[in-house]
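Next comes a concrete protein, fold included:
___
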Amino acid sequence: MLASRLPEMSTKARGEGSPRVVHILGTIKAILDNHKKDATAITAFRSLRSIAETLQPGEEGPLTAILPIVVSAMTEEETAAAVYTALPVLWCVTPFTECF
């Protein structure tokens, strides 16, 4: 649900919800630490993509902290497609890249 609804939020509402999104990022990290190969992980990667596409100030650190897990999940057959869909957007939030 997060993956589909987050992009539909107004900019103001999305900004006001940023502290909750930071908490959600911590939850997603915990989920991915334990469920790298199942449908839960696929849903988490979709949510990460939505968060990255609507990124607000203060969310960059928690989001980039998840990148090592994302990279390691690239080799898992069950989740690779979801990872490769999310990765370009996630890569753009790192301080080392220029995107699009």
About this structure: The chain has one domain: 2-91.
